[in-house]
Specification:
The structure holds three protein chains of three kinds. Chain A is an alpha/beta fold. Chain A has helices at 2-7, 18-22, 24-27, 34-42, 51-55, 61-65, 72-85, 97-107, 136-142, 151-163, 179-183, 187-204, 214-222, 234-243, 263-267, 272-280, 309-325, 334-344, 358-365; strands at 129-132, 169-170, 208-211, 230-233, 247-249, 254-258, 284-286, 328-331, 354-357, 366-368. In chain A, the strands form three sheets. Chain A has a four-stranded parallel β-sheet with strand order 2-1-3-4, with helices on both faces. A four-stranded parallel β-sheet of chain A has the order 7-6-8-9, with helices on both faces. Helices cover 42% and strands 17% of the residues of chain C. Chain C is built from four helices and four strands, in the order βαβαβαβα. Classes of the chains: A alpha/beta, B alpha/beta, C alpha/beta.
């Protein structure tokens, strides 16, 4: 615990309470706050059963504001590991399917077959650029009833890359990136997955890996050892193409607002590129929500755990902001989209708003030169 | 004061249902059955029409419930000898024959294996053998073996075989000294549910039954095709034992035939269609034919079932088999195909006869003992056939099921409940069993006790029981483990209770047989030991291990260890569960003031229950007000209605006319209802709701009804007949108007009978033509009226292509003569379909969330065994609300609904099964997926402070767990079957035990 | 080295568990490679349970329930069918042969059928070999 506090600067906390004031979970009704949690850790208390151990979204909003630079979510991640050792566990959603799947991949016992939908004419066998597919195909199968539509995003990304003259490779043997396993304190699962991916990527001899999912991007950039290749989000690739003058767009009349995913925004600092591209599309009017950019608020759930009353409140509040801004919300993380699609199918949903993934939207208007 | 007792004669499905309804309403019941087991004819059936439900599966839970019910004394091997006294005070003598095996029997079967004597088993209609000591069939209840002393070699001191005694390892179990007992019972009323018998087809000489082995009865077919039958469900010819390639079903084999039985046996059409479907499913390529006179698929979903059979390629040939002979290796059925007008000699490999249902054997003796009358066909006579069908001819004696005439399961069950309702009016003292369920036991670390049963040799003969018990003792949290000869023996139960107390055990595992048969017994032991019964787990190492792996003792031993390991994993996470209670508002609301509503209201009033009846019209009486004379006896409808209205006036029923249901909140036992009437809106609380809204009649658009004044409906004819005599006309009737067509496949059930009764009245002074598709005169006295109409000169025409009417002539292609006929017609009468009461039904769906079947009638809880209950607990169905019914059926179902309501309202509070879903509110995001999948509308989204949340009504939840799987956030938990418990079992199976 | 498969069978309380009991009463033999977990309804089987079993080392999972139309809870078996169909796709994607998951309807009277279904399913899993591709027959 002590080491955890040192590693994450938690011992520096002087109880100013800014984190608490900004914490989205506290705002909708958590029984404890980040500050109290750190305080209790300083006093050497057992945190295993603290409310925030598993309810924290790890959205990093608190760290935007912390005057002492406490890595609160890093602290949470360490506490989760400790809690797990003490028999604690999160509230898994969807019958623990997502976590079990990650464990199955980590075991290396089965050879997955998730690319049946893939149009191989859009890909190449030996290019230097690869598109990361991630867990979309599984999530779509498991959560079809919840409106999950992630393969559509990968397909759109292929179209976008093709349009820009890139025939990407798809790594048939890529496994789950391990992001969620890492963030729920399953270090052994994470490491097994990482090792497998490092091996696959290294064997592939690619030089650039493009992501539609910010989580894969984030975890490979920050948690994997340096692979010596370039990592990029699809919005960075398109933004570069715009800069290079190789991307033009058809007209699309739409008033939209944009959801910054926590991983893409606060973790990776990518705020401008997606916006820049949207603004290049003739007819698109981008209106910001009350909280956007660094201050952006969360889609409500992370790592397929602890989805609950509070998550719904957050989602409803966030979508209220979106509704006030524009009739279309552009998401840029497959999970944000899945979470919002889910709430849209629920009782009590009363917002007039439609959701579009950024890559999907771009693929509909992008024209090569 | 102890509860008043009611005698129920007959342990078939009708007797069981009547007993349960009585017992659940607080009466004490003596259930008398002649045979050594409960279940009657239904237990012999493989499937039931029209859903192909497994018969055993749906009947067995009721049998077990009746057997275990503390208000029911089941007396098998028993007969009523004398009855004295009167309603409210009958003195009954019952002779109980000895079984020669007492209740210590563990049904292990060792004696059966040892017994040297075998005869054909009656249960399998002689197709399988049984021993002198036997259990008639594996699921038999009571499951105590019985000795057939006629067959047994042990005759006094003359011959001493006693092989069974030697084989039996249970102390004091087989007892050859047992003697018959005469029991004296005091009862307040009597229900006769004696069922019927079947004509021995040998009496129909030209059908060759008994001469040709491959001519069999429908019950023999049922056992042949049954998974638990003599061939384990393989359909074979009895001669040759090969799969038949051609099967011919002969319907009306003795029914509707003055040489044998003039009446319709009512069940054979559907039962034969079911068997034909089963045959087709077994043997895809077989040629299957049904020889019939009229297909009487009159019940709900029956017509669709019939259509399905035709689609499957089953051939229906109209004609009565004239004789059956044998030529070479096959049978030949001779029949005139009356639709094509040619004689056919059908070659076939197997003939299945549908012989008529007869009154029960010795029904005359029983009638004498009870001092009640029989009708012309030898069944019990009803006090009045239309509106008092369940009342015997002596006060206090009630009739149900086949006792009054042939009937299917659903109709018998509805009548059984109805009879119970009537009998309850004599039950003054009521008592409900109450057991104090201990709450304690779950606290602290698990301290598990494991008891591994040898079951004599049944488990120990295969599984190394000592090794298994030793292994169990080493498992984490197990503080006691032992092996025992018979876990279910009284002495072991004592031992379990003592060990729980001595070692402070808080979880118990018995590794023995099945929780389905023995779970309750051990749970009772936990209660006696003072710990919560849901801390009990059972490992099924007999039925699902030693018995099925007898050739692999080592692996069976290993498997037993795994099963116990899995039980330990489950037990570790077990919690004490307490059945919650919910209070009951002791009043009933009846919606609809027709004959069904009136009957239900008067039944409940007779039991002293507070009843409110609402009727949307200004006057009560419903359809009965519009009818003239009723089939079959011609009694005037107005007379019956007047009598009911007089009864109503004398009663305390609170009647509101011009009143409709506005809104309903709440749930079983606690409905808050608002009623709209001329006086405004009234709010009142009720514990139960009976829906008796009736049905509508189809408004025809065909046959020129709209254009020609001389086209009227059968209802308009009733009024015309009431107004004055109709003479000197040519009148044509067309049946099935608005029914049995593509848009509306169902049969309306009432119209053939009503129309034949109408034409029988008209035929004397008019010329009458009768155009029909199938003549469905199945009700009591209906077939006889059909004959009267024929005698009086009514001409019958059968059509498949719809006739036409131009105002003067009816044009019809007559199937019998094969001719296109033009029938001059002065008056055309259309027998119109019964359709759901659309507007009211929609309202009911809105306010009560009841479910509808395809045609828009209300869906029953179960089409066979829950005919008077809706899909919503506490809401019951009387009359045509659930589908077309004849008058006596309407009345019976109304009484049935009253019995269900009475049982509910007799309790101060309802005990809710603790195995129910439960919402962890913090985790709930009120997405409403749970409430969408709940088949019982038990889940609502409700407001709480600061938001909303799913809420499970424990009184309506049945514990299926569908919502738990649907819940994306694990907010929903099924008590007793928590995710964690099942997950722990899976982990433990793979060796992980935390 | 000989290998015995590990097969998990979910059986609903009202039909299939009764069918398993009936198989016992009639002594219909089947291979001991299966372990039965009783649930109230086949509609109670969470897809997560099936994935969990495969992750923990099961070689096959069989879901059994009442025949369609016979469900004690109206339509739980239809729900089970829908979920199993989803799992067929998902298992295929995960690289677990979808034949390793079975769905069968067995009534309480069908003891013989229960034994036959189990025998066939065990035979199939034995032919497929261990799920993890490790040591097999």
């Amino acid at each position: 615990m002590k080491e955890s506090m040192q590693r994450t600067n938690a011992q520096m906390c002087y109880s100013c309470g800014k984190c608490t004031a900004h914490c989205p979970v506290v705002r909708v009704g958590a029984s404890e706050s980040p500050r109290e949690m750190v305080e209790r850790a300083q006093l050497g208390r057992d945190l295993t059963n603290d409310d925030l151990v598993w309810n924290c979204l790890t959205c990093k909003l608190c760290q935007n504001y912390c005057p002492e630079d406490v890595d609160f979510i890093g602290f949470i991640r360490e506490i989760r590991g400790i809690s797990r050792d003490n028999g604690g566990k999160p509230e898994y959603t969807h019958g623990e399917m997502m976590q079990t799947m990650a464990r199955i991949f980590a075991s290396g016992k089965f050879k997955q077959n998730k690319l049946e939908w893939l149009d191989r004419s859009k890909t190449s066998h030996d290019g230097e650029v690869a598109l990361w597919i991630g867990c979309g195909p599984y999530v779509d199968t498991a959560l079809k009833d919840h409106g999950s539509d992630q393969v559509n995003i990968s397909n759109a990304a292929l179209d976008v890359l093709n349009m820009l003259g890139i025939k990407p490779r798809v790594l048939d043997e890529e496994v789950c990136c391990g992001h969620d396993a890492l963030w729920i304190g399953e270090d052994e699962t994470f490491e097994a997955l990482m090792d497998k991916n490092l091996e696959v990527i290294s064997r592939s001899e690619i030089t650039k890996l493009v992501f539609t999912c910010p989580e894969g991007y984030e975890v490979m950039k920050h948690e994997y050892p340096d692979m010596g290749i370039e990592l990029a989000h699809i919005s960075e690739v398109v933004a570069d193409a715009v800069d290079d003058g190789v991307a033009t767009f058809d007209k699309m009349e739409k008033k939209v607002t944009y959801q910054d995913p926590c991983r893409l925004g606060r973790f990776l600092g990518i705020y401008d590129q997606p916006r820049k591209v949207l603004e290049q599309i003739p007819g698109i009017e981008l209106v910001e929500m009350e909280h956007s950019g660094k201050r952006s608020r969360c889609c409500g759930v992370s790592a397929w755990i602890n989805c609950n009353q509070n998550s719904k409140r957050m989602q409803m509040e966030r979508l209220e902001e979106a509704e006030n801004a524009a009739p279309t919300l552009v998401t840029n993380c497959p999970k944000c989209l899945t979470h919002f699609n889910c709430v849209k199918n629920e009782d009590g949903f009363d917002k007039e708003i439609e959701f579009t993934d950024w890559t999907v939207l771009v693929s509909k208007t992008l024209r090569g030169v | 004061m102890s509860a008043s007792s009611v005698l129920v004669i007959g342990g078939g499905i009708a007797g069981i249902q009547a007993s349960l309804d009585l017992a659940n309403a607080g009466a004490h019941v003596y259930l008398i059955e002649k045979a050594p087991f409960l279940g009657g004819r239904m237990a012999q059936l493989f499937k039931t029409f029209p859903t192909n439900d497994c018969s055993t599966c749906i009947e067995a839970p009721l049998i077990v419930e009746a057997h275990r019910h503390s208000n029911i004394d089941v007396l098998v091997d028993s007969e009523v000898m004398t009855v004295a006294g009167n309603a409210g005070n009958f003195k009954v003598q019952v002779l109980k024959k000895p079984k020669y095996v007492n209740d210590n029997c563990t049904s292990c079967g060792d004696c059966f294996d040892a017994c040297p004597e075998a005869v054909p088993n009656e249960f399998d209609v002689g197709l399988k053998l049984r021993k002198a000591i036997y259990l008639p069939f594996p699921q038999a209840v009571p499951s105590t073996y019985t000795i057939d002393r006629d067959l047994c070699l042990n005759k006094g001191h003359l011959i001493a075989c006693e092989k069974c005694l030697e084989a039996c390892e249970v102390e004091n179990c087989i007892d050859f000294e047992m003697e018959a007992e005469m029991l004296d019972l005091d009862v307040v009323s009597i229900i006769v549910a004696c069922g019927g018998s079947v004509l021995d087809p040998r009496s129909m000489k030209n059908y060759g039954y008994g001469k040709f082995e491959n001519v069999i009865t429908n019950m023999e077919f049922e056992r042949l095709v049954s998974a638990s039958g003599p061939t384990e469900g393989e359909l074979v010819e009895l001669e040759g034992m090969e799969s038949p390639k051609r099967i011919t079903f002969v319907l009306c084999a003795g029914s509707r035939d003055v040489n044998f039985q003039g009446y319709c046996s009512r069940v054979c059409c559907m039962n034969s269609i079911k068997e034909a479907i089963l045959a087709k499913e077994h043997l895809k390529d077989a040629e299957i034919k049904l020889l019939y006179m009229d297909i009487r698929s009159f019940g709900k979903g029956f017509e669709e079932y019939y259509n399905r059979a035709k689609e499957m390629g089953i051939k229906f040939v109209r004609g009565k088999a004239s004789d059956i002979t044998k030529k070479d290796e096959h049978l030949v059925v001779r029949v005139e195909n009356t639709e094509e007008g040619k004689i056919e000699d059908m070659e076939t490999d197997m003939v299945v006869l549908a012989p008529p249902l007869l009154p029960a054997e010795h029904i005359g003796d029983l009638a004498k003992v009870l001092d009640i009358k029989l009708d012309d066909n030898g069944f019990f006579r009803s006090e009045q056939v239309n509106v008092l069908p369940l009342r015997g001819t002596k006060e206090g004696i009630f009739l149900c099921g086949v006792a009054t005439g042939p009937k299917d399961i659903a109709d018998s069950v509805a009548e059984a409940s109805g009879a119970a309702s009537s009998a309850l009016s004599y039950v003054e003292n009521r008592e409900h069993p109450s057991v104090e369920i201990p709450e304690k036991g779950g606290e602290g670390e698990p301290r598990i006790g494991v008891f591994v049963c040898h079951c004599g040799n049944n488990i120990a003969g295969v599984v190394d029981v000592e090794d298994v018990a030793g292994y169990a003792g080493e498992l984490p949290n197990v503080v006691h483990s032992e092996n025992t000869l018979f876990a279910c023996a009284d002495s072991t139960i004592e031992d379990i209770i003592n060990t729980i107390r001595e070692k402070d055990l808080n979880r118990i595992i018995v590794a023995a047989c099945s929780p389905k048969t023995h779970g309750d017994l051990f749970m009772d032991a936990l209660i006696e030991a003072g710990i919560n019964p849901y801390l009990f787990e059972m490992s099924n190492i007999r039925n699902q291990c030693s018995w099925v792996h007898s050739d692999e003792p080592e692996r069976a031993t290993e498997k037993s260890k795994t099963l116990i390991r899995m039980s330990v994993a489950r037990a570790n996470l077990a919690e004490p569960l307490i059945a919650e209670t919910s209070s009951v508002t002791k009043s009933a609301l009846i919606v609809g003031g027709g004959i069904a509503g009136l009957t239900a209201a008067l039944d409940l009033n007779a039991q002293g229950i507070d009843v409110t009846l609402i009727e949307k019209q200004e006057e009560l009486g419903g359809r009965l007000r519009e009818l003239h004379k009723l089939s079959p006896e011609g009694i005037e409808a107005s007379k019956l209605l007047t009598q009911k209205m007089k009864d109503l006036l004398k009663s305390n029923v609170n009647v509101m006319t011009s009143a409709t249901l506005d809104d309903v909140e709440g749930y079983v036992g606690n409905f808050q209802v608002t009623i709209k009437s001329l006086e405004g809106v009234t709010a009142k609380d009720f514990g139960a709701i009976i829906l008796a809204i009736g049905a509508e009649l189809y408004e025809p658009t065909e046959f020129g009804y709209v254009d020609h004044e001389n086209v009227i409906t059968n209802l308009e004819l009733e009024k015309m007949m009431e107004a004055g005599p109709i003479e000197g006309k040519t009148i044509s009737f067309i049946q099935c108007v608005g029914a049995r067509n593509e848009e509306y496949p169902g049969c309306s059930r009432y119209c053939c009978e009503v129309a034949t009764h109408q034409v029988a009245q008209l035929a004397e002074k008019n010329k009458v033509n009768f155009l029909y598709k199938d003549m469905r005169t199945f009700g009591k006295g209906a077939e006889e009226n059909y004959k009267v109409a024929s005698e009086k000169g009514v001409r019958f025409f059968r059509w498949t292509e719809q006739p036409e009417f131009d105002g003067n002539e009816v044009k019809v292609q007559d199937v019998f003569s094969g001719m296109a006929l033009a029938l001059p017609t002065d008056l055309l009468v259309l027998s119109v379909a019964m359709r759901p009461n659309q507007e009211t039904v929609e309202k009911l769906v809105e306010v009560l969330k009841v479910s509808l079947s395809e045609e828009g009638f209300l869906m029953e809880k179960h089409v066979k065994l829950g005919p008077v209950e809706s899909s919503i607990a506490g809401v019951f169905l009387a009359g045509c609300v659930s589908g077309p019914k004849r008058l006596d059926e309407t009345v019976s179902s109304a009484s049935g609904a009253a019995a269900k309501a009475a049982a509910l309202l007799s309790k101060d509070e309802i005990l809710v099964s603790p195995i129910v879903a439960f919402v962890r509110e913090d985790n709930c995001r009120w997405c409403a997926r749970c409430s969408e999948v709940c088949p019982y509308s038990a889940i609502d989204i409700v407001e709480i402070e600061g938001g909303k949340v799913a809420w499970v009504n424990g009184a309506m939840c049945t514990g299926c767990g569908a919502c738990v799987v649907e819940c994306p956030t694990k907010a929903m938990i099924l008590k007793g079957f928590k995710d964690e418990q099942i997950e722990a079992q899976i982990d433990a199976m793979m060796g992980e035990l935390v | 080295m000989s290998w015995d498969p590990q097969i998990l069978v979910f059986a609903c309380n009202w039909c299939s568990y009764g069918g398993a009991d009936a198989a016992g009463v009639s002594r219909f033999q089947y291979p001991p490679d299966v372990q039965i977990v009783r649930v109230m309804c086949s509609g109670r089987v969470d897809p997560g349970f099936v994935l969990r079993a495969f992750n923990k080392g099961a070689d096959g999972v069989l879901v059994t329930g009442c025949h369609l139309g016979d469900c004690h809870y109206q339509d739980g078996n239809y729900k089970a069918e829908k979920r199993v169909e989803m799992l067929y796709t998902l298992l295929g994607q995960l690289g677990i042969q979808s034949e390793r998951l079975g769905l069968e309807w067995i009534s309480a009277a069908e003891g013989q059928r229960f034994a036959n279904v189990i025998t066939d399913f065990v035979g199939k899993i034995r032919r497929l070999g261990p799920a993890n591709g490790g040591e097999g027959p």
